[in-house]
Amino acid sequence: MNKVFAVEFWDEKACDVRSTGPHKGAKSSVMANKILAVDHYLESHRNAFEAQLLKLLRIPSVSAQPEHAADTRRAAEFVRDDLIAMGVPAELIEFKSGHPIVYGERLDAPGKPTLLVYGHYDVQPADKVRDGWRTEPFEPVVEHGNVYARGATDDKGQMLTHLKAAEAWLKTAGKLPVNVKFLIEGEEEVGGANLEAFVAANTAKLACDYAVISDTSQFAPGMPAICYGLKGLAYFELRVRGANRDLHSGTYGGAVQNPLNALCSILNSIKGPDGRVRIAGFYDKVKDLEAWERAEFAKLPFSEGEFATELGGDVLAGEQGYTTLERKGGRPTFDIHGLWGGYSGPGPKTVLPCQAGAKFSFRLVPDQDHKEIGRLVRQHIEANCPPGVSWELDEMHGAPAVLVTVKGSPGVDAAVQAITTSFGTPPLFIREGGSIPVVGLIKSHLKVDTLLLGWGQNDDNLHGPNEKFSLADFHRGIRASAHLLAELGKD
Amino acid sequence: MNKVFAVEFWDEKACDVRSTGPHKGAKSSVMANKILAVDHYLESHRNAFEAQLLKLLRIPSVSAQPEHAADTRRAAEFVRDDLIAMGVPAELIEFKSGHPIVYGERLDAPGKPTLLVYGHYDVQPADKVRDGWRTEPFEPVVEHGNVYARGATDDKGQMLTHLKAAEAWLKTAGKLPVNVKFLIEGEEEVGGANLEAFVAANTAKLACDYAVISDTSQFAPGMPAICYGLKGLAYFELRVRGANRDLHSGTYGGAVQNPLNALCSILNSIKGPDGRVRIAGFYDKVKDLEAWERAEFAKLPFSEGEFATELGGDVLAGEQGYTTLERKGGRPTFDIHGLWGGYSGPGPKTVLPCQAGAKFSFRLVPDQDHKEIGRLVRQHIEANCPPGVSWELDEMHGAPAVLVTVKGSPGVDAAVQAITTSFGTPPLFIREGGSIPVVGLIKSHLKVDTLLLGWGQNDDNLHGPNEKFSLADFHRGIRASAHLLAELGKD
To answer: Is A207 exposed, middle or buried (0-12, 13-18, 19+ CB in 10 A)?
Structure first.
């Protein structure tokens, strides 16, 4: 959405620190002084904050890889210790398996709203050589105002903005202007089940008025955004097996089913050349884009040509009948994430492999249900698997799509004011293709909306090589978070 | 084919060492004594031959893998040194790149036929963990009368039979009964170009009456076979590229073409659910199986049920309208040998990868031409590649299919007699699905047929894990090769 749309939901007067009146004026003046002190603290601690970010980025907290279990724990301890150091009592919540949750709270603003800050300290896997990084993923490098490292934007850098904002308040005013609960997990990238179990079992402890998450992107550099829609996710691993051993393709080829051929056949059957998923029932629950949404998508400052050029040229393709932005933000998708099987070393090898596998996922939109999609996928493979092989399907990760209420939300109004102050321009309202399962989880268990305040950029390359985060946006994000606390704490 | 068919082409009298007549009888008697001495030598050197085989199998001469270049050379030196030790002058023929050819000759039987022994000392890649071997591929283990190791049957074990046969003659009679040239290469498994260049440039040096190669299988245990038909091969590597970097499947999914999806689409377009290749023109040059061949295929002692059971169950599938044996031996095929791209580690990773690749090949039958198939494959991909990606195709390996003349060939008659003596039963005549490019190369440059005398078994798992070779067949093969020299050397 464009600026006009954004301003529509933003009551300037309600947030104006310069509004007058004898009583309000006095209070406002106190608040204004506190904010000045906070801003001063932020300005004078830029180097310290950056040093801390780099330190956290050096911890390879890859939650998916067992060999990084100890590293992942170190990242949790880093976050816990930082909270304690700034004056927020915090602890590690341990589980039978998986990675701990960092939980901390400061509830010293009775009568004021309560904000739940969610973030995650775990990161996606990264390998310099295999994935083609220019630098080591866990040896952060600062260049051209960006920090390059795995987790820079997703989510260590963005998560840290809320910690540093709280620190500024605690170190200047001695307390926070609202009640704040920190919930920082370590299984976001693997869809671990511990978080949902913890939230479900602790709804009173976690009760809040709003959640805030910074794990999304701005619309473009200089165009901060509030994300009001996220896609859901249904992620699968498929393994196909044929003969009881690898065979010679000369001796057995043509007579024995090849699991690699079968895998390609199954995967190709899932999406047609028109970009539409061919699984029966897949679109039944899809909420079509509304006319106003399509109109807003069309108004966004976006050049398909520039978008393609930035990605390397002629690389766009998708569902017929929709624009690139609509496909990205508002339509369900199917992507293969990994293929394996047989020989991939140098030279030829005429093997007829006995097994093959793939990871793939669907991004879902309201009101698709990831569990139902799992059933439909299973039925589809059953009907489309070639003869001569068996298959196994693991449902690895699922999350519902989310649409946040924007109109008439004081929390959204506060966020708009905080962002406007810190970034110098009001935020756009956008829908994103990514999935943040916790947003649906917070909605269903705690019954509150989440403010998705993205400080990242679309080309930050989260999940890819050379992930980065703008240090200017890092500091703007910290300031916006600090001002959000002020806005929410105003009478 | 069955025994009746085999006997049809075998003139017992021409090969009978007991035939009478004053002059011939004396000669025959001398020859018979020499053969007795050879047989005695073979019997008393079984342990020594096995020890040598194990020593050669311990050399990981994987020609495809640069890290094994030195090992591959060691295997060449092993073969050269063995030839020299038995009295065959031999040398390494070096090339600008790639692996040397071992060449040796003993031409001390003027007026007698010349036999060219071809074999290869290089082997397919093998990795215990990745490929699921029970034992280390390059630490041979003898169990139940078999030796288990990479290269046991393909081709170190089979190749060595011809060296040990020559050794027996040289150590007993002091010379060979025919002229023999040894051409043992090290690039068979990678389709190296050095061999063809060498043969083309040395047709006088390599001139011969027959070539003999043991790099195929018996029809079944106790059923030795002469292979008269081999498939050709056209082997490719396809690489598909999309955006200029890996992307997040949430942020970009649905808008940017996914190279893994595109790769599956291309590969799946190559073969239909009926098992027929869908590349335009692919079948144009295919010589249909003749009625007598289909009748012979049908007569072979073969149980489809037992074949499937031995492979693990319901794994058979292929071109409609043909039996399993016809598909294996007489019809062209399409198999994918390797798939790669994206993430295949533990857990989910929502990456939209920027590249993917596959290795695949077609087995060809007469009169398909691998170069023409390469052109057709290129046209097919051009027409079937989804939008948004680019692709590159490497033609890695090509070989024509071969049909050897059986009827009226004295060389085939000699081989039948030698095998009958050594295995106790006459050989079957079969067509195989494998490709031995050198057979076509020998035919085109040296104008002679190749005797394909396979000592292996179909379940030897060449190119797969736990490759094996029967030691009983190893010794029978040595004896058959020694007797072949005698049969060819008879007046």
So the answer is: middle
Cβ atoms of residues A297 and A288 within 8 Å: no
* Three-class SS state of B212: strand
Give the residue from B221, B147, B228, B204 showing the smallest Cα distance to B449. B228
Could you tell me which chain A residue has the CA closest to the CA of B333? A254
Q: Residue-wise pLDDT tens for chain B (491 aa)?
A: 222 223 233 333 333 333 344 455 567 788 899 999 999 999 999 999 999 999 999 999 999 999 999 999 999 999 999 999 999 999 999 999 999 999 999 998 999 999 999 999 999 999 999 889 999 999 999 999 999 999 999 999 999 999 999 999 999 999 999 999 999 999 999 878 899 999 999 999 999 999 999 998 998 899 999 998 889 999 999 999 999 999 989 889 999 999 999 999 999 999 999 999 999 999 999 989 888 789 878 888 899 999 999 999 999 999 999 999 999 999 999 999 999 999 999 988 899 999 999 999 999 998 999 999 999 999 999 999 999 999 999 998 888 898 888 878 999 999 999 999 999 999 988 888 887 878 989 998 999 999 999 999 988 998 889 999 999 999 999 999 999 999 999 98
Spatial distance between the Cα atoms of A373 and A283, rounded to a whole number of angstroms: 10
Q: Which amino acid is at A301?
A: P
DSSP code of residue B100: P
Interface ipTM > 0.90: no
CB A67 within 8 A of CB A153: no
- Which of A68, A256, A316 is best to mutate for the B interface (most B CBs within 10 A)? A256
Helices assigned H by DSSP within B408-461: 410-423, 437-446
In chain A, what residues touch B252 (CB-CB under 8 Å)?
311, 328, 433
- Residue B155: is the preceding peptide bond cis (ω within 30°)? yes
Considering only residues 383 to 402 of chain B, which have any Cβ-Cβ distance to chain A shorter than 8 Å? 386-389, 396-397
Q: Which domains does chain A have, with CATH numbers?
A: 3-230+401-489 (3.40.630.10), 232-286+332-399 (3.30.70.360)
Return d(Cα A163, Cα A83) in angstroms, integer.
Answer: 7
Alpha-helical (H) ranges within A300-407 are 304-311, 324-330, 370-384
Rounded to the nearest 5°, which phi and psi values hold at A8? -50, -35
Taking the Cβ of residue A220 and every Cβ of chain B, the question of whether any pair is shorter than 8 Å is answered with no
- DSSP letter (8 states) at residue A475: H
Would you call A342 an interface residue with chain B, using a CB distance cutoff of 8 Å?
yes
Residue type for position A195: L
Kindly identify which residue of chain B lies nearest to residue A124, measuring between CA atoms: B349
State whether B463 and A249 contact (CB < 8 Å): yes
Cα distance between residue A365 and residue A333, in whole Å: 9
Beta bridge partners of B398: B234
- Tell me the DSSP string of A11-66: -TGGG-TT---HHHHHHHHHHHHHHHHHHHHHHHTHHHHHHHHHHHHTS--BTT-G
In A214-280, which ranges are continuous DSSP H helix?
A: 249-252, 259-270
Contact: B347, A252; criterion CB under 8 Å: no
Taking the C-alpha atoms of residue A38 and residue A44, their distance in angstroms, rounded to an integer, is: 10
A434 in contact with chain B, both atoms CB, cutoff 8 A = yes
State the residue for tokens 């050594």: B422
d(Cα B189, Cα A242) in Å, to the nearest integer? 24
Q: Is B303 on the interface with A (CB under 8 A)?
A: no
Residue in A171, A189, A83 with CA at minimum distance from that of residue A467: A189
Residue B388 and residue A315 in contact, taking contact as beta carbons nearer than 8 Å: yes
Q: Count the neighbouring beta carbons within 10 Å of the beta carbon of residue B12.
A: 12
- Asked if residue A192 lies in contact with residue A96, where contact means CB atoms within 8 angstroms, the answer is no
